[in-house]
Structures are given as structure tokens and as C-alpha cells.
Amino acid sequence: MTATAENTQATSSDEHPVLVDVKGVKVHFPIKKGVIFDKTVGHVYAVDGVDLQIRQGETYGLVGESGCGKSTLGRAILNLEPPTEGSVEFEGVDIASLKGEELRRKRKDIQMVFQDPMGSLDPRQSVESLLLEGMKAHGLAKDQKQASARLRELLKAVGLPAAALKKYPHEFSGGQRQRIGIARALSVDPKLIVADEPVSALDVSVQAQVINLLEQLQDEFDLTYLVVAHDLAVVRHISDRIGVMYLGALVEEAAADDIYTKPLHPYTRALMSAVPVPDPVIEDRRERILLQGDLPSPANPPKGCRFHTRCPWRQETKCDTERPQLRTLDIAGVPASHRVACHWAEQIESGELEMHTVTAQITSQSDLSEGGDDFLGPASVQEAL
Ligand SMILES: Nc1ncnc2c1ncn2[C@@H]1O[C@H](COP(=O)(O)OP(=O)(O)OP(=O)(O)O)[C@@H](O)[C@H]1O
Ligand code: SF4
Ligand SMILES: [Mg+2]
């Protein structure tokens, strides 16, 4: 589905069956220390309690700062990263419960498109061999005539000539390589494609072509997408619904248009306030919410609301002690599909609570040194996006 009439599509997609059901998923990576004994000294709480559903035929966009757990969640949905807790059901079946042939068959239905097409394509394999690999593994290339017809069909679908079959990845431009990556994902006739930053390595002009291609293919091949991206414009264009992640959890989820026109979580408000508006008059007048302080380490996430160390609406009660759940809001005109994880979302929206300045807080240095610098996020939302 395209995002040209997001609200209508979101409504109609509500009637579509749930394809992916993520239930309370946590992915915690142990932090090991010691030369002789591999002692676990802590955990990186990369994904820390996510519930979301992706309906058949929709595009679900996942956004958030670098290190908030988007890729890890995508990998958990593919079962490449087994959840520490919780489950991922695909067509009603818990993927982790599958083994052998059943798991192999299910894997065929869920494919991935990667950020770096060069890194994900073996440079020693021709395009033909790259495309045939998955087809052979899933018994889709038994008849040679049918297989070569399918290869030509795949190339045509992604806008490449049949002559590309005999070439190697280095002979193509970045955009063409991403088209090969997409053809490879399509080759096994999947139901869900998880696209992790599918265009962020490409030139801006090529990005639009690849995004348009993904949209066309969705209708043609009856696909469902999970698109992970840090570029809010890309996600808005392609998504029916959007989930905003912060430190391992969803803080807001709504139809794409609703997230952009009426962000209700303080973090989403800050993200959206950083997106430039094409109209110079509105651009000059609009309010910017500049977040203070670093993104805390996922090895030492703040207690209570994870966003409280940077939130301009933080309150003395609840914010530091109670972790808010994703919930529907009691605000007229806000649909039940728009869910927000903030104790005070209603009062912030009504203006009862006003923004205040935030004094930057430093998370425990001992925890940071255990996790290492790798676990630090960018200094600000602007830097990240
Ligand atoms: N295999 C791993 N072992 C330990 N920590 C990991 C592992 N994979 C990811 N992490 C950590 O988990 C956190 C979430 O990482 P993830 O790659 O999911 O974030 P992301 O939102 O995709 O970021 P980006 O936008 O930079 O791609 C980060 O702190 C990362 O360093
Ligand atoms: S719960 Fe409190 S700290 Fe968290 S986003 Fe809402 S107001 Fe801010
Ligand atoms: Mg990532």
C-alpha cells in the first residue's frame, strides 16, 4: 500500500488479517568481561518489551535514533535474533517453535533487504547465481525452463535488463545493486519483506526510484513490508503506519499521517519539530523542541519512563518511577489506533502541562564503561536524524 491516502488505507488495512504479531519481545545482549572466565557483567537492553502487529498488505515504518533497537527488532522478527523473552507469531505460528523443514518453509516467507547492497551480495557470484541460490534452496528452480523464465520476470519487475543475469555486483551502480537485492528477496516469493534502511546508502535521486519500486512491487507481488529507517521523509512516504522507538521500546504508534500531523509523545514531538517544512513562512514560525542531554546507554536505561532524562514535560510524579505502557488516549478526535506511551499525554495535548527546561543528566559512568562507547547514542536528535 502507498501512503498517498494513509488514513483510508490504515482503516481498510485494519480489516486485513494480522501477518506478524510481536508479543512482549525483549532482546538483551550479555556484556561479557574477563580473559579466562567469560563473566556476564551486564546486559544491553536492545529491545525491551515491544508489542506490535503488522497486517497483511500494509507497510509498517519503524523510526528512532541510532541504537534504539530498530535493527535488532527487525532481526528478532526474522528469528535471526532469538528473543530473550516474548514471541513473534507469523500467520499465527510462533516462529521459535518451528524446526527443520517447517522452519525452512517459514523462512522463505520472510525475506530481508539490507542497507548496503554491496555488502549483502557475494561479489564472486553472477546475478543469475545470486538469484538462483534462494530459489534452489526452496525447491523453486527444479524446472530449468520455468526457473529462467522466473529470473527474467524478476529482473523485469525490478527494472533491470535480462543481460544483467550474466554480470557481477561490481558492474552495477548502487541503485541497481539495491534492485538486485530486492529481486533476490522476491525470488522465493515471500509474504513479508523486512527492509532495514533500504535506501540510506543511496543518492537522494536514486532513493526515490527505489522507494517507488518497493511500492509498485508491493501491489504486484502482494507483499507486506516492515521498513526500518532513520529518514523520517522516507518512512512517511512509504508507510501506512509508523512506530517510533526510543531505547528499546515503542513510544508512539499511529497511521503515518497522524504521526506527522499530530505527534502526541514528547519524543515524537521533538523528532517532528526537527523536520524542515518546505513553506518558508511556516518554517520560520514553527516551534522547535531541542532535546537536551545524550541518549542514555541501552546498557543502563533510565528507570520509569525511559525518556524522562530528556523530556521537557517530565513531572515529579510517575515519570521517574513508573514505566508508561503504550495506550490509547482519552482525547477527542484521536483514533484508538493512535497509541502513546506517556503518563501525561492528555494533559500535554490540552496545554494543562507546559514545557520546561531540561537539565542534562549523566547516566552512571560505571555502566557506560562496562558497555563501552559503542553503546552511546548520538548527542541529539538532530545529530541522529
Ligand atoms: N550482537 C550484539 N551484541 C551486543 N550488542 C548489540 C548487538 N547488536 C546490537 N547491539 C546493541 O543493541 C543496541 C541496538 O542496536 P540496533 O542495531 O538494533 O539499533 P538501531 O536502532 O538499528 O541503530 P542504527 O539506526 O544505528 O542502525 C545498540 O546499543 C547496539 O550496540
Ligand atoms: S511519561 Fe513523563 S517523562 Fe515520559 S514522556 Fe511522558 S511526560 Fe515525559
Ligand atoms: Mg539499524
UniProtKB/TrEMBL annotation:
Pfam families linked to this entry: ABC_tran, oligo_HPY
UniProt region (Disordered), positions on chain: 364-385
SMART domains per the UniProt record, alphabetical: AAA (SM00382)
Entry superkingdom: Bacteria
Cleaved signal peptide residues: none
One example GO MF annotation: ATP binding
The ABC transporter domain, residue ranges: 31-272
InterPro entries the UniProt entry points to: AAA+_ATPase, ABC_transp_ATP-bind, ABC_transporter-like_ATP-bd, ABC_transporter-like_CS, Oligopep_ABC_C, P-loop_NTPase
UniProt KW keywords: ATP-binding, Nucleotide-binding, Transport
Family: Belongs to the ABC transporter superfamily.
PANTHER family named among the record's database cross-references: D,D-DIPEPTIDE TRANSPORT ATP-BINDING PROTEIN DDPF-RELATED, TRANSPORT ATP-BINDING PROTEIN
Protein name as it appears in the record: ATP-binding cassette domain-containing protein
Source organism: Pedococcus ginsenosidimutans
Lineage per the UniProt record: Bacteria, Bacillati, Actinomycetota, Actinomycetes, Micrococcales
